[in-house]
Amino acid sequence: MKVLLVDDEVELVSAMAERLEFRGVDADWTDNGEAALEMASRTDYAVAVLDMKMPRLSGLDLMERLSSQHPDMKFIFLSGHGSEADFKAGCAAGCNYLIKPIQIDDLIARINQVAG
Prior knowledge:
Blueprint: E1 2-6, H1 10-22, E2 26-30, H2 33-42, E3 47-51, H3 59-69, E4 74-79, H4 84-92, E5 97-99, H5 104-115
Parallel strand pairs: 1-2, 1-3, 3-4, 4-5
Helix pairs in contact: 2-3
Protein backbone atom coordinates (compact mmCIF):
# COMPACT_ATOMS: atom_id res chain seq x y z
CA MET A 1 0.00 0.00 0.00
CA LYS A 2 1.33 3.41 -0.99
CA VAL A 3 0.58 6.45 1.17
CA LEU A 4 0.91 10.10 0.15
CA LEU A 5 1.62 12.63 2.91
CA VAL A 6 1.01 16.33 2.19
CA ASP A 7 1.81 18.99 4.79
CA ASP A 8 3.39 22.43 4.46
CA GLU A 9 5.51 21.76 7.57
CA VAL A 10 8.49 20.09 5.87
CA GLU A 11 10.19 18.84 9.02
CA LEU A 12 6.96 17.30 10.29
CA VAL A 13 5.95 15.59 7.05
CA SER A 14 9.43 14.26 6.30
CA ALA A 15 9.76 12.88 9.85
CA MET A 16 6.29 11.33 9.59
CA ALA A 17 7.24 9.62 6.31
CA GLU A 18 10.45 8.32 7.84
CA ARG A 19 8.61 6.93 10.87
CA LEU A 20 6.02 5.27 8.65
CA GLU A 21 8.81 3.70 6.58
CA PHE A 22 10.40 2.33 9.77
CA ARG A 23 7.07 0.60 10.49
CA GLY A 24 6.73 -0.87 7.02
CA VAL A 25 4.40 1.73 5.45
CA ASP A 26 5.52 2.84 1.97
CA ALA A 27 5.05 6.63 2.13
CA ASP A 28 5.94 9.51 -0.18
CA TRP A 29 5.64 13.11 0.93
CA THR A 30 5.47 16.67 -0.33
CA ASP A 31 4.90 20.10 1.19
CA ASN A 32 2.29 21.40 -1.29
CA GLY A 33 -0.85 20.44 -3.13
CA GLU A 34 0.41 21.09 -6.64
CA ALA A 35 3.28 18.64 -6.19
CA ALA A 36 0.85 16.13 -4.65
CA LEU A 37 -1.31 16.26 -7.78
CA GLU A 38 1.75 15.63 -9.94
CA MET A 39 2.92 12.75 -7.73
CA ALA A 40 -0.55 11.17 -7.77
CA SER A 41 -0.59 11.33 -11.58
CA ARG A 42 2.48 9.04 -11.62
CA THR A 43 1.86 6.78 -8.60
CA ASP A 44 -1.20 4.86 -7.41
CA TYR A 45 -1.72 5.90 -3.77
CA ALA A 46 -4.24 4.03 -1.63
CA VAL A 47 -4.38 6.71 1.08
CA ALA A 48 -3.55 10.42 1.18
CA VAL A 49 -2.90 12.12 4.52
CA LEU A 50 -3.57 15.83 4.01
CA ASP A 51 -2.91 18.84 6.17
CA MET A 52 -6.17 20.76 6.42
CA LYS A 53 -4.61 24.22 6.17
CA MET A 54 -1.96 24.77 3.50
CA PRO A 55 -1.17 27.82 1.39
CA ARG A 56 -2.66 28.00 -2.13
CA LEU A 57 -4.46 24.62 -2.00
CA SER A 58 -6.18 23.52 1.24
CA GLY A 59 -6.51 19.90 2.26
CA LEU A 60 -10.21 19.90 1.35
CA ASP A 61 -9.55 21.47 -2.06
CA LEU A 62 -6.74 19.00 -2.70
CA MET A 63 -8.98 16.08 -1.70
CA GLU A 64 -11.63 17.21 -4.18
CA ARG A 65 -9.10 17.34 -7.01
CA LEU A 66 -7.42 14.06 -6.09
CA SER A 67 -10.69 12.18 -5.61
CA SER A 68 -11.99 13.33 -9.00
CA GLN A 69 -8.87 11.85 -10.64
CA HIS A 70 -8.49 8.85 -8.29
CA PRO A 71 -11.95 7.79 -7.09
CA ASP A 72 -10.62 4.87 -5.02
CA MET A 73 -8.14 6.99 -3.02
CA LYS A 74 -8.98 7.34 0.70
CA PHE A 75 -8.27 10.46 2.76
CA ILE A 76 -7.20 11.36 6.28
CA PHE A 77 -7.03 15.00 7.38
CA LEU A 78 -4.55 16.44 9.86
CA SER A 79 -4.79 19.80 11.54
CA GLY A 80 -2.71 21.64 14.07
CA HIS A 81 -5.47 24.18 14.59
CA GLY A 82 -8.32 21.89 15.53
CA SER A 83 -11.20 24.24 14.85
CA GLU A 84 -14.74 22.95 15.01
CA ALA A 85 -15.33 24.14 11.43
CA ASP A 86 -12.35 22.09 10.21
CA PHE A 87 -13.55 19.07 12.15
CA LYS A 88 -17.02 19.33 10.62
CA ALA A 89 -15.57 19.78 7.12
CA GLY A 90 -13.21 16.83 7.60
CA CYS A 91 -16.01 14.67 8.94
CA ALA A 92 -18.28 15.65 6.08
CA ALA A 93 -15.54 14.47 3.75
CA GLY A 94 -15.29 11.08 5.43
CA CYS A 95 -14.75 11.61 9.18
CA ASN A 96 -11.04 10.79 9.13
CA TYR A 97 -9.67 13.74 11.02
CA LEU A 98 -6.69 13.76 13.40
CA ILE A 99 -5.31 16.62 15.50
CA LYS A 100 -1.54 17.29 15.52
CA PRO A 101 0.63 16.29 17.19
CA ILE A 102 -0.30 12.71 16.39
CA GLN A 103 1.13 9.44 17.61
CA ILE A 104 2.54 7.49 14.68
CA ASP A 105 0.79 4.31 15.83
CA ASP A 106 -2.55 6.16 15.79
CA LEU A 107 -1.86 7.34 12.24
CA ILE A 108 -0.95 3.82 11.11
CA ALA A 109 -4.13 2.46 12.69
CA ARG A 110 -6.19 5.09 10.88
CA ILE A 111 -4.41 4.42 7.56
CA ASN A 112 -5.15 0.70 7.90
CA GLN A 113 -8.75 1.47 8.88
CA VAL A 114 -9.51 3.68 5.86
CA ALA A 115 -7.60 1.43 3.46
CA GLY A 116 -9.87 -1.40 4.58
